Amino acid sequence: MSNAFIELIKKRRTIYNLGNTLPVSEEHVTNLIKEAVKHSPSSFNSQTSRVVVLFGEEHQKLWNITKETLRAIVPAEAFAATEQKINSFAAGAGSILFFEDMAVVKGLQEQFAAYADNFPIWSEQASGIAQFAVWAALAQENIGASLQHYNPLIDNKVQKEWGTPDSWLLRAQMVFGSINAPAGDKGFMDDEARFKIFK
Q1: Helix 119-140 and helix 4-11, axial crossing angle in degrees, nearest 10
Q2: What are the residue boundaries of the Nitroreductase domain, all occurrences included (predicted)?
Q3: Are strands 168-179 and 94-101 parallel, antiparallel or unpaired?
Q4: Would you give the distance in Å from CA 156 to the centre of its chain?
Q5: What domain range includes position 77?
Q6: pLDDT-derived band of residue 1, with 50, 70 and 90 as boundaries?
Q7: Helix (H) or strand (E) holding 12
Q8: Is the peptide bond before 120 cis (omega within 30 degrees of 0)?
Q9: Number of domains the chain is built from
Q10: How many CB atoms lie within 10 A of CB 100?
Q11: Quick check: helix, strand or coil at residue 27?
């Protein structure tokens, strides 16, 4: 099966061995992220996704915050492995913080009470779509990335450091950079266990 979009989906992989160089400018990366998020669908076109992009020292700051937060809760004898993992993220060129604006979600819950329970779920779906869109856009430019979730442990420190509004809920952190080593082989479960087709 040959389809350019499917091929791009296949190209998007979790890359752990990242470097701090980029094949394109930081401005180009920023524009890619903006366009990918802007054109990602959301329920009621609510556009709940919010993004903070960090390069250079700001990117390093994020992973230093994460490391020190974890140092306080990870047993000392196990911290070396944790530190090595965090350092591998810090080795990248930048990070993307994905948030959802819960003020918008709350407003929709009040405006459309019949769907109130669904709006937080739809917000999570919108965030996932935006994350995937950005990841695929980066992959198309041969930029490696991996998606991390140190929220809610780092939420308060992130809000304080970058001045994000109280209503912005941190959902994921995507680190990106040059691909120092490709992703390994990916296994798949049998189609018969995953898909049902009726005609």
Answers
A1: 90
A2: 9-177
A3: antiparallel
A4: 18
A5: 14-181
A6: low
A7: none
A8: no
A9: 1
A10: 24
A11: helix
Q: Name the token pair of 50.
A: 């919010």
Q: If you search the block for the tokens 């530190």, which residue do you land on?
A: 83
Predicted confidence (pLDDT) per residue in 31-74, tens digit: 999 999 999 999 999 999 999 999 999 999 999 999 999 999 99
Q: Which pLDDT score is estimated for 2?
A: 75
Report how far Cα 89 is from the mean position of its chain's Cα atoms. Answer: 13
Secondary structure of residue 168 in the 3-state scheme: strand
* Element (DSSP H or E) covering residue 144: strand 144-148
Q: Is residue 196 part of a domain?
A: no
With H, G, I as helix, E, B as strand and everything else as coil, classify residue 96: strand
> What CATH number did the domain enclosing 70 receive?
3.40.109.10
CB of 133 within 8 A of CB of 36? yes
User: If you search the block for the tokens 């937060």, which residue do you land on?
Assistant: 69
DSSP code of 38?
A: H
Q: Pick from 189, 138, 170: which is nearest to 14 by CA?
A: 138
Q: Residue 116's pLDDT band (boundaries 50, 70, 90)?
A: very high
Is 9 among the domain residues? no
Tally of residues, the chain: 199
Q: What share of the chain is helix, strand, coil (3-state, %, to 5)?
A: 55, 20, 30
Q: Does 194 fall in a domain?
A: no
Q: Where on the phi/psi map is residue 69: left (φ > 0), alpha (ψ -120 to 50), or beta?
A: alpha
